[in-house]
Structure formats: structure tokens, C-alpha cells
Amino acid sequence: MERSENARVRIVVKFFKDTGYKVGQCVCASRTPHNTTQTTREQNLVVRMGRSSKDKRDIYYRLAKEEGWRARSAFKLLQLDQEFNLFTGVNRAVDLCAAPGSWSQVLSRKLRGQEETTEQVKIVAVDLQAMAPLPGVTQIQGDITKVSTAQEIIRHFEGHPADLVVCDGAPDVTGLHDVDEYIQAQLLLAALNITTHVLKPGGTFVAKIFRGKDVVLLYSQLKIFFSGVTCAKPRSSRNSSIEAFVVCQNYSPPEGYIPNMSNPLLDHAYDVDFNQLEGPNRVIVPFLACGDLSAFDSDRTYPLQLDSDKLYEYTPPTQPPIQPPYQQACHLRRNNLLSREDTASREDTASICPETERLSTQTAEQSHT
């Protein structure tokens, strides 16, 4: 007896949950479908389920797509600005490790919001990866550890230093927390290093930080260059994450300090015992949870139907990645070329070693007889 359409849909949904197929990898519940239209409808349903599942699990990911942001991290900078008024009086801003460009989007919308100040505002985005263009944002595809990159930033500002430097860069986490914290600390120090080349006295520096056991070393280093250092946790940052942001205000480097890319900053050059403080003398940095308490909880799962007056509709990402590092791997897997490469490599090995191939053939014939 032919199943009804609703029963077939339920079977497809159960199949999707049991097998864990990803989006676009679903198959029909019936091997010999009676109706091609029904089959297509069922497949589209499964695809929509896969796409909408992250919209329920991550509310800021969903809001970012609906509001046109390239990534959910845009809300982190917006909530930091609500607490610290980061954009007040800023005409020249730098976004380090900018790709895919969500923080550059925030800078562009906030600083270029008024038409009379559009020509005065200059925004520079720096990243090793390519990034889709943004209105009013000059892109530099370069390395933040190079002096030439700092010189290029100053050149775009026509010789003037920046008022604000932000950095939302983070390494590809490995799952080894000590390693991830160390790499993130080095990335933050690299961002701080180039900031000393391009930031004006009294300027502001905002960067991501992992609050690990040795985070006091970073705090002590930042306190050398900024009179005000605050560790802030935006509402859109998950509570389960050790991610936070340091808001460093009033840039005032030590007297006689000359920015230098050759030496690391954390080398105990300023005070031998400065980074070894313990107990009551340990460097204490205020920790502030910023963002409206009535805002969405980043760790909570929300229903797709947030507003009873507005039906949910899936929104695709604003800007797909441009040449991501995993693009080639995805292409090989999507076209089932990974196994072919293995086969080809075995054939190449056999052709290189004909004697080995001959011996293996004789062994196979003897075992067969």
C-alpha cells in the first residue's frame, strides 16, 4: 500500500536524524519513488531542516544574516561600542585580521553613517586572505608582522596615525587549550606590535583574547602601553567560551620607546620582575560583561518563529568566503576525488617499481594455484 505524503516526510526526517547526513547529502526514503514531485519536495524539506538547525542553535548567526552582516562577530563590536563609545571622534580606523569583514562592516556603517563626514573617514582592513569589497574600506592583503604593512597603512592615512585599531583575529583552534592560548597570545602581541606603529597617542586598541591561566602576562604588557585596560565579555560571546576582548584606551607608550618589528614585545626588557608578580601585587584588569541584559543569550536555543506576526524564512549568508583554505579539500570530497588520488598514487608507485609489481603478481598466481 502506498504511503501518504505525510508519512513519507516523517520517514525522511527520521532517516536524516538517524544517519546524520549533511546538507545536500540526503537521499530519498523510497528507492523507487512513485512521484518525482514528492521526492523533490522531501529532499528540499531535509535541506531546509539542515540549514535552519543552526538558525535555532545560534541566534546571533541568524540575526547577522537577516541584518546583512558577514559574520555574527559584528554584534560583539557593536556591544563593545555600546559600553565604551569606541567610535566617538574616530576618523581613521584600522581592522587587523579583517576577513571575512564583519568588523569592517561595522566600522563602515558607524563611521560613515553621516554623509557630511564620509570624505573625512578612512578605514583600512588588513588580512592575509582575500576579502570581498566594502564601501569606504581600503583593503591591504598583507602580513601584520611586516613593517611594510604598517607603512602602507600610514600611507593610506596620508601620513596621519590611526584613532582606533581593532583586531578580531584568532587561530584555527586545535582543541589543545594550552597551545590555542599560546598562539592567540602571540597573535595579540603581533597586533599590538603593529599598533604601536600606526596608533596615535591617546588612541584606542581593541583585540580578542583567550582568558587562560597566564593571561596576566598579556595584561601586564598592555598596561605598559595603555593607561586603561579592561577585559570585556559581550553578550553575543558564548559563556562556554574563554574568548573575551581587551579594550585598551589612552595609548601612551613608555618614554623613548621606538616601535620595532624585529623583537617580540614580551621579553622582560622593561622590568625584569614585572611579569612575575604574584599575590596582591599581581596585575588586576577589570572584567566587564557588556551588552543589554535583555539581549539574546548566545548559548540558548531559540525557536525559528521568534515573532508571531512574522513567518520564519531562511536567509542565506551575506557573503560566502573568498578562496578559503579548505576550498580545495571540499572540492575533492564533493566530487569523490580523494579516493581517486589514492588509487592514482598506488598506480604511480607500481609503475616506479616494476620489480615489486612482478613479484606481487607471481605471489598472487601461486596462491591461486
UniProtKB/TrEMBL annotation:
Any Pfam family: FtsJ
Subunit relationships: Interacts with WDR6; the interaction is direct, and required for 2'-O-methylation of position 34 in substrate tRNAs.
Physiological role: Methylates the 2'-O-ribose of nucleotides at positions 32 and 34 of the tRNA anticodon loop of substrate tRNAs.
Family named by the database record: Belongs to the class I-like SAM-binding methyltransferase superfamily. RNA methyltransferase RlmE family. TRM7 subfamily.
Active-site annotation: K208 (proton acceptor)
Protein source organism: Solea senegalensis
Protein name (record): Putative tRNA (cytidine(32)/guanosine(34)-2'-O)-methyltransferase
Top enzyme category: transferase
